[in-house]
Automatic annotation (TrEMBL):
Domain of life: Bacteria
Transmembrane segments: none
Pfam families: PhoU
Protein name (database record): PhoU family transcriptional regulator
Biological processes, Gene Ontology terms: intracellular phosphate ion homeostasis; negative regulation of phosphate metabolic process
Similarity-based family: Belongs to the PhoU family.
Residues in PhoU domain copies: 18-99, 128-208
């Protein structure tokens, strides 16, 4: 493998990893805010979608440039195509994470049954971010078996988010029906929590793409 090509690959992987880590870090701050029941902590979530978009475009441009200059072979081509898709999935995960913070902070007021909501919202956010963090770490993993193991871990966490969202949805529907005057706020909270489930979906897509990059197979979109 040509040295410049290998250097470009390492740069691409590192930039994708850093992009993912930025989103994971933001979600960890959100998780701390929910655990402490202190929404003022959400002001520390400094996640700029514009900045993420610029970074994704820069990574994609480097990928396209590398493809044009070095004409990689089949496996390398598969890897590069996967990375092109991964940047888009990360951008979508970042957008959903940002949307969660914005909507939750706005709608989670003192009049709502906070305890009932947080009972499932906290583990939902934790599972969602575990899925994303595991997927992001796979970017730097080169062992095929470890990549496949990581993919399985992501799918387990993603499945948890489905179950947890279903439970919190049921509870919020009940609370909204019992407090019609607060139904708008309850449904906005539910909408924000839906974004966390979507982050886990994006993590599943990322891990699947990285399995495809390393061992081939079929790309499945969450």
């Amino acid at each position: 493998m040509l040295k410049p090509y290998k250097e470009n690959i390492e740069t691409i992987k590192n930039e994708i990893y850093l992009m993912g880590e930025e989103i994971v870090h933001a979600n960890k701050i959100s998780l701390s805010a929910l655990k402490e029941n202190d929404l003022s902590m959400l002001k520390d979530v400094n996640l700029s979608i514009k900045s993420l978009s610029v970074r994704a475009n820069e990574i994609d441009n480097l990928i396209v440039k590398t493809l044009a200059l070095y004409s990689p072979e089949a496996r390398d081509l598969r890897e590069m195509v996967s990375y092109l898709k991964v940047t888009n999935e990360l951008l979508r995960a970042g957008t959903n994470s940002k949307s969660f913070v914005k909507t939750f902070k706005k709608s989670f007021n003192e009049e709502l049954d906070r305890h009932t909501i947080l009972e499932y919202a906290i583990p939902l956010l934790k599972a969602s971010n575990n899925a994303l963090e595991t997927a992001v770490n796979l970017v730097k993993e080169e062992n095929d078996k470890e990549v496949e193991l990581g993919y399985k871990k992501v799918t387990v966490e993603e499945s948890k988010t489905d179950d947890l969202y279903a439970m919190v949805e049921k509870n919020i529907f009940k609370l909204a029906s019992e407090n019609i005057e607060l139904s708008k706020d309850y449904f906005e909270v539910l909408s924000s929590l839906r974004r966390l489930e979507k982050v886990a979906d994006r993590a599943a897509s990322i891990s699947n793409l990285l399995v495809f990059a390393e061992v081939g197979g079929i790309i499945e979109q969450a």
